[in-house]
Amino acid sequence: MEFVTHRREDGSFQPLREHMENVARLAAEYGAAFGAEEQAGRAGLLHDIGKYSPRGQARQRDPEHTPKTDHATAGAQEAYLKLRDLPAGLAVAGHHGGLPDLGQRGDRENGTFMARMRKELTGENDPSAWRGEIALPQRVKGPAWFGAVREPRIWAMYTRMLFSCLVDADFIDTETAMQGAQPRGGYESIETLLEKLRAQVAPWLEKPKNALCARRSEILAHCLRGGEAERGLYTLTVPTGGGKTVSSLAFALTHAAAHNMRRVIYVIPYTSIIEQNAKAFEKILGAENVLQHHSQADFSDDAQGAEEPAALRKRLACENWDAPVIVTTAVQFFESLYAAKTSRCRKLHNIANSVIIFDEAQTMPLPYLKPCVFAIAELVRHYGATAVLCTATQPALSRFFSRTAPELAIREIAPDPDGLFDFFRRVTLRQEGEKTAAALAEQIAGRKAALCVVGTRRRARELYELLPEEGRYHLSTLMTPRDRERTLDEIRARLRAGETCRVVSTSLIEAGVDVDFPTVWREIAGLDSILQAAGRCNREGKRSADESVVHIYTPDGSIPKAFQQQVEAAQGVLAKYEDPNTRAAIAAYFKALFWMRGDDALDSKNVLQYEDSLAFRKTEEAFEIIPKETMTVYIPTSGNANDLRLLRQGMFSRALMRRLGRDAVNLYRYEYDVLASAGVLEDYRSDGFAILLDSQQYLPDVGLNVKEPESGAGIFI
């Protein structure tokens, strides 16, 4: 009997043995990046042995008339019960449905891994025919460090990495068998990309235009030299305006080339700035070598979703991150590292042996800080990665890394960080006490160009409506990404032309958004947020620090609960330090904030506790930076009518959702319910979205009209 799998388009079948051996070969290749070549290869040979059962073969040959079968448990039992290979057993058990929770030895019917180990595979479910085709190695080597590991959470991370090798190999071979070879890979080498960057920056290094450019060039040159250093954990503490985006890329490419590392991964906190950074990289390295992976990236070429080869390659690369430069969000990165689903974990093996830049590292979510620190430390300790915490306001993370991985030394890349802070000081911070919205609006209206950053979306809109109409702008997450981008383009154009430009924004403008105002007002917040806002003032250093004032004020309403501890910690530092824009003041702020929060609040969902139980599904549920209770409202425009028609018909393609994401607003459920009860939404609640029916509820300059309570919850979307 010929054992088969995967019916091809011409009606023929792929031999099952061929598939198993192909997956083993690919999985071994992927696992070699972190010393798991043999173990990953054996998992590949085991993953589909359940298909050798009579029922498994019936399903492969006639899926329309044969019920689905569990073909993963057989390989998992072989791995765990006979070979005592728990990580491979878990990976094989989850290669279709996702990693299961380990469970307890007495489990029977609850779907845990241990329950599946008690499942009898006899009769029609007997897979033993595999032994006639598959030569299975009995002894394999894992990573040298793995045998000494006693911490379950380290086992959990390793299991995901092994799982990633297996599922990516399985997907790739299945794809090739059924569709033929797809346009994957074919990128320029890291060495070539480094040469492109060196060519781009050579004029900057040779002939700086002025003292400011000279100091930026000094930082850049230092990063190019520093990239030759050994792998490990680094910080790059460069004040706003110091050119840290290009300098960090220079370090990363130099480092990757020096150590034969496979890629650079740039982790950015917000989708609002990801395209800005990606475009900067594309200009230097070529768009074909830079992959954006976030919810709003669109790789299709027209409204019908047709794909050219280059677009198809990028879409496919989003599945497993095989491009040389990845630009992604912190949500995508960290949630993948704690995921259980095959689609989220598939890319993980390609994080190994990479340089990872965490841009605006101070924005790592505090309720998940300890799991984030643990994940970074693991990638550096055991998976050949180098991590760079890149920020103008470096949080005091050293104590968390020293607890998690005391053997890791944190090294600073920037030359003389204290001297850099002195040189790049371009603003004066001034505390001004409590202000009413009316008084604040009057002050802002007295300036031709000014920025005010507030704490909630409701306050942003209220203040905006109090300003004179000429040259006023509003920014918040109640606006669609398309309208936010358009608004920022208009703001930049007016600032360049010297025209009236008064902007009210939530904190989305703070991290990495390239705008330059002569004066900024900032509602009292955490010190890191205040200093990020200050980075939008006199950004290019064209004015003196004395005349470039950042006004810190307290609103006449209450401070949202979500911000109260940050505000209290900031007030303590502002009272103690004459100049809070120093490394000492910033360190004092984060120390106070972490003390106020307490260790338990830095892993508020007990993620690491679930990891210690190898409870993969519970971990995935707990590690949820953006809560699932958010709902999406799509805003009809003149250009998306056809896409909305396809959406109504249930055609949820990836390309379609990305295109529509440009015209979407995410709401918490309580906000969504307000609009739904008012009858202004075409409600598809079960699918997690709605389409706006009443065009009067959305205005391009201020966004969706939603009444927001004072809790501050909605600002995080």
Summarize the structure.
This protein has 28 helices and 21 strands. Helix 18 crosses helix 19.
Look at the structure and give the mean pLDDT: 89
Number of self-contained structural domains? 4
Q: What order do the strands of the largest sheet run in, or round the barrel if closed?
A: 5-6-4-7-8-3-9
Number of helices: 28
CATH architecture of the largest domain: 3-Layer(aba) Sandwich
Instruction: Show unreliable segments.
Output: 296-306, 708-717
In one word, what is the shape? globular
Quickly name the level 1 CATH class of the largest domain. Answer: Alpha Beta
For the largest beta-sheet, the strand count, sense and barrel status come to:
7 strands, parallel
Termini distance? 56 Å
Write the layout of secondary structure elements.
Elements lengths: L3 E4 L5 E3 H16 L5 H10 L7 H8 L11 H10 L3 H8 L19 H4 L35 H28 L10 H17 L4 H16 L6 E5 L6 H15 L4 E6 L2 H15 L4 E4 L15 H12 L4 E5 H8 L4 H4 L8 E6 L9 H14 L3 E6 L6 H7 L5 E3 L4 H7 L4 E8 L1 H9 L3 E5 L3 H10 L5 E4 L5 H17 L3 E5 L14 E4 L3 H8 L14 E7 L8 H13 L6 H19 L5 H6 L3 H7 L8 E4 L6 H8 L5 H8 L2 E4 L1 H9 L3 E4 L4 E4 L5 E2 L3 E2 L13
Parallel strand pairs: 3-8, 3-9, 4-6, 4-7, 5-6, 7-8, 10-15, 11-13, 11-14, 12-13, 14-15, 16-19
Antiparallel strand pairs: 1-2, 16-17, 18-19, 20-21
